[in-house]
Amino acid sequence: MTKTRTPKDGYLPWETDMDLIQAVAQLEEDAPPPDFAARVTAALPRRRPGLLVRLRLWAATPRTLTLVPARLAPVALGLVLFAAGVAVTLAVRQGPTGPADGLVPVRFVLQDPETEVRSVAVIGSFNQWEAGGFQMRYDPAAQAWILEARVPPGSHEYGFLIDGQRIVPDPSADLTRDDGFGNQNSILLVNGHAI
User: Fold this and answer.
1) What's the rounded mean pLDDT across residues 70-79?
2) How distant is the alpha carbon of residue 15 from its chain centre?
3) What CA–CA distance (Å, rounded) separates 77 from 80?
């Protein structure tokens, strides 16, 4: 004979786990009330989302932007002043800069109103005293021989090679130096900016 256990003995009224499973299966299933999920959610403590989530939500929210020119003027002025300050700071840190190849544009001019000369070239320490590539052209309007050239920064001695035979100093040069052979060379100081 099988003894039936009672709840007062500390046992439940079924014998095995299978009895428990069958008892649960026989229970009637009621649908939860319609506001059940809302009540459970409302009962949970509210947590503030993290900073990244808040930023993403803020960025994803559509906004209407109204621009008033009178209010934008101080902002635009501030941006311009900021950009100018950055540019000045970078220029001061980098120092004077020339073109990417390091050569600086220089303009050579030799006045010749009577057109007494047939050809002129600029020769100097910046081109190893060779005339190739440094021939000047005559400009009738200016009545002068003119050459736009690019030379490296620094101090250079130079002169004009007239008709391929004689060297004369630049009459408009502020500085000259004796070349040691009884002639004067003009001095060109190039500081990294166009002259």
Assistant:
1) 83
2) 81
3) 5
